[in-house]
Automatic annotation (TrEMBL):
Keywords: Signal
Pfam families referenced in this protein's UniProt entry, alphabetically: PATR
Protein name listed in UniProt: Host colonisation factor (ShdA)
Family matches, as InterPro entries: Autotransporter_adhesion, Autotransporter_pectin_lyase_C, Autotrns_rpt, Pectin_lyase_fold/virulence
Recorded superkingdom: Bacteria
KW Lipid biosynthesis (keyword) present: no
Keyword Protease: no
Source species of the chain: Salmonella enterica I
Length: 272
């Protein structure tokens, strides 16, 4: 393609073949796409889909100067976007793909941000590694914000982002290592749900922590959250000196402290 040229294409759910097939492809100019496809939000980033736009027999080493997408994204959660670019797993294909808004780039339908709004009754699981990325005018490139009354599950223990803010619903992780490296703030009526690992983040706010599963959760951070701690299974081990311990609701679990000074407030409903 020559500089200043354009490709205009319309996509729908029936598209199954590339728009362009060629032995060699050199990209330039503008790609204008419109789509009538209906978006269905996946429950995990493992189910992201893609459409091949250009199929070359050799590697595509260039790109369009700009990409525009005219599509109804109203049904797309804020944590998802549409990206245009060379397939990371096959550089002979140029594709349109679903991705996390966290890693959105210049040729994405949305600007990069760290907010995950999961609606009530819905769950979304992030298996990809969330690392600190390029900051934008509205986001520092490292903070994760959980909003909505649904559940966001982080399953990658290699996450290396910064602070976590839970404004509503549940943020769940089997292993506390998935929370990244920064402080955790839990808003009132919000929940941080963990099963195992070492929680070395400092936790603040008016929300609660729920410990589930049969494994051990070790807490080492400087915690001042006030929403309570529910242990529904396994062992919660405290290895730091505690300045404040929220009320503990124990249900068929073991609570122990290696070296600590604390107060435990048991609810009237507790049974022994």
């Amino acid at each position: 393609m020559q500089d200043g040229s354009q490709i205009n294409a319309t996509l729908d759910t029936a598209n199954s073949s590339p728009i362009i097939k060629a032995a060699n492809v050199t990209l330039d100019g503008t790609l204008n796409l419109s789509s009538t496809a209906t978006f269905v939000a996946p429950e995990t980033d493992e189910h992201f889909g893609s459409i091949t736009l250009i199929d070359s027999q050799t590697a595509i080493t260039t790109d369009f100067d700009s990409v525009t997408l005219d599509a109804d994204t109203s049904a797309m959660p804020d944590y998802l976007t549409i990206n245009a670019g060379v397939d990371a797993n096959d550089n002979t294909n140029y594709e349109l793909s679903t991705g996390l808004s966290w890693y959105a780039g210049a040729k994405s339908a949305r600007a990069a941000h760290g907010t995950f709004t999961v609606d009530a009754g819905s769950t979304f699981t992030v298996t990809s590694e969330l690392d600190e990325t390029t900051a934008t005018s509205d986001w520092n490139g490292s903070k994760l914000t959980k909003q909505g009354d649904g559940t966001l599950i982080l399953s990658n223990t290699g996450n290396d982002y910064g602070d976590t803010e839970i404004d509503g619903g549940i943020l769940a992780a089997k292993d506390a290592a998935a929370l990244g490296t920064g402080d955790v703030t839990i808003a009132e009526s919000a929940t941080l749900a963990l099963s195992q690992g070492t929680l070395d983040n400092n936790v603040t706010g008016e929300g609660q922590i729920v410990k589930s599963g049969s494994d051990e959760l070790i807490v080492t951070g400087d915690n001042t959250y006030s929403g309570g701690t529910t242990i529904s299974g396994g062992t919660l081990t405290l290895t730091m000196r505690i300045r404040w311990v929220p009320g503990l609701l124990l249900t068929a679990a073991c609570f122990r402290s290696a070296k600590a000074s604390w107060k435990i407030r048991f609810p009237a409903a507790a049974r022994w």
